What does this fold into?
Amino acid sequence: MARTCSVCVHADRQAIDAAAVAGTPNRRVATQYGLTEAAVRRHRTSHLPARLAKAQEAADLAEGESLLDQLASYRRRALAILERAEQDDDPRVALLALREAVRTLEVASRIQGPLAARELPTVSVYAFDPDVVFPDPKPPSGATVLPTDPPAPPRCHSNGNGGNG
It folds into this structure.
């Protein structure tokens, strides 16, 4: 059975991790927190990289969400300017505000692509009865219906041999 990491279960784990990330020597960290140097070294090489990667991923996600919040604020401001320009009948300012609103959407879509990679597209399926949507035309009553067989191919020569005899 694998041993439990004494650093991972230590009450001061966050402080120990911070000291390791800051580059404090293993022996000094071990002495300060009542651990062995080998336990700090094993923790630093085996467990700390995974924690740092998770922390970086969380920070990246938070930064992306913060950027989206800022973009939403810019878009609201651009739309307010657009509305005011339309009320003032100022087409130049209205076009500039509209352009900025569109640009914020473009940037947001580029940011959201990686953030929303877990989402699946929505697919709508419509069923219909082809006989109702595309009914066969009915001939008028009393009309003569001709067969729909393909016509015979034309003959090239009067003897019917196709020119071979």
About this structure: Residues 56-115 form one domain. The first helix runs from residue 13 to 21. The helical segments are 13-21, 26-33, 37-46, 48-87, 91-115, 130-133. The radius of gyration is 38 Å.
